[in-house]
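Hello forum,

I keep getting stuck at the same step: I have a sequence, I want structure tokens, and every attempt I make locally crashes halfway through. Rather than fight my setup again tonight, could one of you with a working pipeline run this one for me? It's a single chain of 171 residues.
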Amino acid sequence: MTEVRAMAREDIDAVSAVRVSGWRAAYAGIVPQPYLDAMDAEADAERRRGWFDAGNGRVDNLVASDGDEVTGWAALGPYRGEQDGGEVGELYAIYVRPDRIGRGDGRALMNAVRARAAERGFRRLRLWVLADNAPALRFYERAGFGPDGTDQIEMYDDVPLKELRYAADLD
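Reply #2:
Ran it on my machine without issues. Output:
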């Protein structure tokens, strides 16, 4: 049974492993392979420990777990774009271990993200998703998100990739 809770420092290595394996699975064939190959879970964990120890209270990190095993991770906080009076939050990241996709971990994380965002007073939640990531687009649309007409280009190893901004009301 999947449970969602706040991330603890002891979860950092597992969260970094989920993030790196999640990137490699989700973005294979979209993001240049050398970029994905260069991702390092240990280096990610070291950076994450620094952020965690700094105590950034603006970001909520949630983990999905099955018993003692971390199976997914999500991070949310205030929207990083234009000023909105603090009413718009952003889902910065959500990843599930590739072998757990389709087992409800992502849905459990998304439900917890939406609940936490509402608790924080956000009335709307935004996220950025690669336009070519069809499985992610379907996941977000099933979760009530849709494109809001805004896009941007992000560079990955000098390769431009289009991202779409998706949004959902929390009311």
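The domain at 2-127 is CATH 3.40.630.30 (Aminopeptidase). If your local run keeps crashing, start a new thread with the error log.
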